[in-house]
Design goal:
The protein is mostly helical. The chain folds into three domains: 233 residues, Growth Hormone, Chain: A (Up-down Bundle); 53 residues, no CATH class; 208 residues, MFS general substrate transporter like domains (Growth Hormone, Chain: A), CATH 1.20.1250.20. The protein is 70% helix and 3% strand. Strands 2-3-4 form a three-stranded antiparallel β-sheet, with no helix packed on it. Helix 2 packs antiparallel against helix 9 and helix 9 crosses helix 24. The two termini are 55 Å apart.
C-alpha cells in the first residue's frame, strides 16, 4: 500500500488540508514544556529557616522551655531549632513552620505545602510522578489509536488535558495535585503522538521527514516561552494557569481534522477514506481520479499488502481473544511486535534508542542545574540549544540518510559526555560547553528517532510500536535521577560513563536498522517481513552468482 498510497498523497500535494494537521501537532508540542519541566519554577528548592517557636511550645512535658538566646539559622535546609531548659541544657526540636526566601518566587508549591526537611522527598515526587501516568499512557495510546482511529482518542485526550491543567492550577490539596499529574501523564502521550502519527500519515512523501523534524520546533519555542513566563509570573498558580491557556486554541483545531485515510483503508472503510481524500483535494485545489477508481485502487492495495485470508483469520482470533478478557487482548496486540524477526529487530532497537535518548537528554538537563546559572536564563538557553537540532540538521539528514546521521549523532554525544570527567575543576565553562554539545546532538537524534519510527513501523502497528518504545523511555526517565543523584554522588564520573556506554550501544544497534530515506511506508507487518525476505533472497542469489563467476575465471597464471 505504501508506494501506491504515497502516489495519491503526491497527487494531493501540500496545501491547506495538510497544513492544518501540521499546525495541530506543532501546537501539541508547544504545550509540553510546563508539563515536562515544572520543577524549576513550580517546586524549586528554596532557602528556608525555622520560625522561632513559642516559649512554651512543646507538649508532653512539664519542663518549661525558653526561646534560645541565639536562634540557630543557616542558609539552607533548616530543619531543627535549638531550645533549652531552665537548667540551660540544650534540646533540638524539629521545625513545624518555616520562613522562605521569596526573593525569586512569590509563591511555590514548595513553600505553600512545606515540602522541605522530612517532606522534601515529596517535591521530587511531584516532578517525576507524571511518569507513572506515562507508563500507562504510552501503550494505551497505541491500542486506542490502532483500534479507534488516529483522530478521536487524541481529540478527547487534549480536551481532558486542558481541563486537568486548569483544575491543577487552583486545587488546594497537594495529594490531589499529584493525582492530576498522573492523569496528565496518561493523556499527554495519547494526544501528542496521536496527532504526530496522523500528521505523518497525511504528509506528502517528499516532505515527510522534514515535517517530522520541523513540527518539533514549537517544543523548543515552548521551552523558551515557559522560561519567559516564569520570569514574568512568579506565583506558581497563575503561572501554570496562564501556561495552560494555549490548550483552548488547540481544541479549536479538532472539528476541522479528518480521520487518517491510511488507517481507514487498513480497516477496509473505503467510502470514508474516499470522502476524506475528496475533501483534501478540494482544500488543496487539485483533482483526484474518479471515486470508483479510488475504491478499486484501495481494494487492490489492501489485497496486495495485507493478505485477506490471513487478515480474516487474524480478526477471528482477535475476536475470540476479546471474549477472554481485555488483558489477554492487550498482550496479543503488543506481542505482534515480537513474533517475526524483522519487526522484532526494529522494536528492540527502537526501545534501546528511546531509553538511551531520554536518559542522556534528561541527565544532561539535570546535571546542568548544578552550574551557577540563572534559572530562567538556563531554561531559555536550553530551548535555544534545541532549535539548531530541529532545523539546520535537516539538509544533512536528507543527504546522508537517517541511519548514518543517527550513528554520527550518538558517537559525537558519546565523545562529549566521556570527556566531561576529564575537565579540570577550574574550567567550568568547558564542562558546560561539552554538556551543551552533547545535548544538542542528543536532541538531534531524538528528532530523527521520532520521524524514523513512523517510517520503520508499518501502519497497522505504527502507534503501537512507537508507544512501546516510549514505554522503554519512561523506564529511563525513572532511572535517570538515580544515576545523577545517587551514583553521581558516590562516583562523580559514573553518570558520564553510563551515558557514554549507552550512546555507543545505541549507535551499534542502529547499524542493524534499514535506511528509510525515500522509501515508501509499509502498511502491514506481513508486507514488511515479505519485502525483507525477498531482499535477503536476492542478496543471497547475487552472492552465489558472484561465486560462480569467480570459479569460472581461469587462475592468474593461466591467463598469462
Amino acid at each position: 500500500m505504501g508506494c501506491k498510497f504515497d502516489e495519491i498523497l503526491t497527487q494531493l500535494g501540500t496545501g491547506r488540508w495538510n497544513l492544518l494537521y501540521f499546525a495541530a501537532i506543532s501546537h501539541a508540542f508547544f504545550l509540553i514544556p510546563p508539563y515536562a519541566f515544572p520543577g524549576p519554577f513550580l517546586s524549586p528548592p528554596l532557602d528556608h529557616t525555622c520560625k522561632e517557636p513559642a516559649p512554651f511550645g512543646h507538649n508532653n512535658t512539664n519542663t518549661p522551655r525558653e526561646r534560645v538566646s541565639s536562634f540557630n539559622k543557616t542558609d539552607r535546609d533548616e530543619c531543627v531549632v535549638e531550645l533549652r531548659t531552665d537548667e540551660g541544657e540544650p534540646e533540638f526540636v524539629k521545625c513545624t513552620a518555616w520562613d522562605y526566601d521569596n526573593s525569586t518566587f512569590t509563591s511555590t508549591i514548595t513553600s505553600e505545602f512545606n515540602l522541605v526537611c522530612d517532606q522534601s522527598f515529596e517535591r521530587v515526587i511531584f516532578q517525576s510522578i507524571n511518569t507513572l501516568g506515562s507508563l500507562v499512557g504510552d501503550p494505551l495510546c497505541g491500542l486506542l489509536q490502532d483500534k479507534y482511529g488516529r483522530r478521536y482518542p487524541p481529540a478527547v485526550a487534549v480536551v481532558l488535558y486542558f481541563v486537568v491543567s486548569l483544575v491543577l492550577s487552583w486545587t488546594p490539596y497537594f495529594p490531589f495535585i499529584n493525582i492530576l499529574r498522573i492523569i496528565a501523564g496518561i493523556l499527554v502521550p495519547i494526544f501528542v503522538f496521536g496527532f504526530f502519527t496522523i500528521a505523518m500519515e497525511v504528509c506528502e512523501p517528499k516532505y515527510r521527514f522534514m515535517v517530522g523534524i520541523l513540527v518539533a520546533n514549537p517544543f523548543a519555542f515552548g521551552v523558551i516561552t515557559w522560561g519567559g513566563l516564569a520570569y514574568l509570573i512568579r506565583e506558581w498558580r497563575w503561572l501554570f494557569f496562564v501556561a495552560s491557556l494555549p490548550g483552548a486554541l488547540f481544541i479549536s483545531f479538532i472539528p476541522f481534522l479528518d480521520e487518517s485515510p491510511r488507517w481507514l483503508i487498513v480497516k477496509g472503510r473505503f467510502d470514508e477514506a474516499v470522502k476524506v481524500l475528496e475533501k483534501a483535494a478540494r482544500w488543496n485545489g487539485v483533482t483526484l481520479p474518479p471515486r470508483e477508481e479510488l475504491i478499486e485502487l484501495m481494494k487492490e492495495i489492501l489485497t496486495e499488502e495485507s493478505g485477506n485470508e490471513k487478515k480474516a483469520k487474524k480478526d477471528e482470533v482477535v475476536t475470540q481473544i476479546d471474549r477472554l478478557g481485555w488483558i489477554i487482548s492487550m498482550f496479543d496486540a503488543i506481542s505482534i511486535l515480537f513474533r517475526t524477526p524483522e519487526i522484532r529487530k526494529i522494536t528492540l532497537v527502537m526501545c534501546l534508542s528511546a531509553l538511551t535518548l531520554i536518559c542522556i537528554y534528561t541527565g544532561l538537563s539535570i546535571a546542568g542545574m548544578i552550574f551557577d546559572v540563572n534559572t530562567f536564563l538556563y531554561m531559555v538557553l536550553m530551548g535555544i540549544m534545541e532549535i539548531p537540532a530541529y532545523t539546520v540538521t535537516i539538509p544533512v539528514i536528507e543527504k546522508f540518510g537517517r541511519r548514518t546521521s543517527t550513528i554520527v549523532g550518538y558517537c559525537v554525544c558519546a565523545v562529549s559526555v566521556f570527556a566531561i570527567p576529564f575537565v579540570p575543576n577550574d574550567m567550568g565553562w568547558l564542562t558546560i560547553t561539552l554538556a551543551m554539545i552533547g545535548k544538542m546532538f542528543v536532541s538531534t537524534v531524538f528528532q530523527i528517532f521520532f520521524a524514523s519510527s513512523v517510517e520503520l513501523f508499518p501502519t497497522e502497528v505504527r502507534v503501537r510500536g512507537i508507544s512501546i518504545a516510549l514505554f522503554a523511555s519512561r523506564i529511563g526517565l525513572i532511572l535517570t535521577p538515580y544515576i545523577i543523584d545517587t551514583l553521581g554522588i558516590i562516583y562523580y564520573w559514573l553518570p558520564s560513563v553510563i551515558f557514554g556506554i549507552l550512546s555507543v550501544m545505541a549507535a551499534l544497534a542502529t547499524t542493524l536498522l534499514p535506511e528509510t530515506l525515500n522509501r515508501p511506508l509499509y502498511e502491514t507487518v506481513h508486507a514488511l517481513e515479505w519485502d525483507r525476505k525477498m531482499k535477503n533472497q536476492r542478496s543471497h542469489s547475487t552472492s552465489k552468482e558472484e561465486e560462480l563467476v569467480q570459479l569460472r575465471q581461469p587462475p592468474a597464471a593461466d591467463m598469462r
